[in-house]
Amino acid sequence: MSDLTGKRALVTGASRGIGAAIAKALAEKGADVAITYERSADKANEVVRAIEATGRRGFALQADSADAEAVKRSVKEAAEKLGGLDILVNNAGIARGGPVAEMSLADIDAILDVNVRSVVLASQAAIPLLADGGRIISIGSCLAERVPFGGVTVYSMSKSALLAFTRGLAREVGPRGITVNLVHPGPTDTDMNPAQGEQADGQRGLTALGQYGKPEDVAAAVAFLASPAARQITGTGLSVDGGANA
Ligand code: NDP
């Protein structure tokens, strides 16, 4: 028996990186898991196979988080395939950098659509489907609280927006025992932010531990917040950033 046995979870943007690790961690703890992806069908199917290898059911749904209708449809489809919904993890996110003075409208819109609007819309679609005692967990960033360098201003703002969303939504769904929380990764080794990338040493130097995190580090925090042990934690954030914001 594991602490998520029988639970049904949807993780957005989980064909690669942190989302894939979250999907696998939830399955290892006993949940059936649906994932969304934008382009990487093969990688999404690999994640489904890893979920199935734990003995749980897995489903991959193509849904562009920038597309409002696709987001809403994917939440409904996930709940249909899973036979209900207990856990929503809003993980899909994109990073488009550059100084504000030089950012294109297309990049600003893409960040807001994927990192902010899709979180609102997926949560909105999930609320009537979530079982009482359910979980909404979003992936923020250490940059939501502190922005130690330029070139990530709009991205950081998109993650800060999730702070107020999390607090407000926790108030709205709390009477049903549904908790709403954020997990804030620091530099984490993925395609988005490789540990050997050009900017990596600077980011590593900002952490107290002097090291990058692994996707599994973030997944462990999400699995904890999804578990019954976290029933009294809501409307808050948990940093998994190696002390980047210490
Ligand atoms: P990656 O770029 O490595 O992976 C992104 C995942 O999200 C992929 O599965 C990708 O799908 C999916 N995705 C991207 N855009 C869309 C979209 N429009 N619609 C649906 N799915 C999409 O990112 P990470 O794993 O590093 O990041 C995951 C989350 O963690 C993000 O919210 C990010 O902002 C946050 N974060 C990451 C940090 C880091 O250092 N890595 C630090 C702080 C926060 P596909 O494969 O189909 O493209």
Explain how this protein is built:
- The protein is of the alpha/beta class and 246 residues long.
- The chain has one domain (8-240): 3-Layer(aba) Sandwich (Rossmann fold), CATH 3.40.50.
- Helices cover 41% and strands 17% of the residues.
- The protein is built from seven helices and seven strands.
- The protein has helices spanning 17-28, 41-53, 68-82, 105-126, 153-173, 200-206, 215-226; strands spanning 8-11, 32-37, 58-62, 85-90, 130-139, 179-185, 236-240.
- The chain has a seven-stranded parallel β-sheet, sandwiched between helices.
- Helix 4 links the parallel strand 4 and strand 5.
- The protein is globular.
- The model has no long low-confidence stretch (mean pLDDT 98).
- Bound molecules: NADPH dihydro-nicotinamide-adenine-dinucleotide phosphate.
- NADPH dihydro-nicotinamide-adenine-dinucleotide phosphate (NDP) binds at residues 13-19, 36-40, 43, 64-66, 91-95, 114, 139, 141, 185, 187-188, 190-193.
- NADPH dihydro-nicotinamide-adenine-dinucleotide phosphate (NDP) is lined by residues 13-19, 36-40, 43, 64-66, 91-95, 114, 139, 141, 185, 187-188, 190-193.
- InterPro entries: NAD(P)-bd_dom_sf (IPR036291), SDR_fam (IPR002347).
- Keywords: Oxidoreductase.
- It comes from Tardiphaga alba.
- This is 3-oxoacyl-ACP reductase FabG.
- Belongs to the short-chain dehydrogenases/reductases (SDR) family.
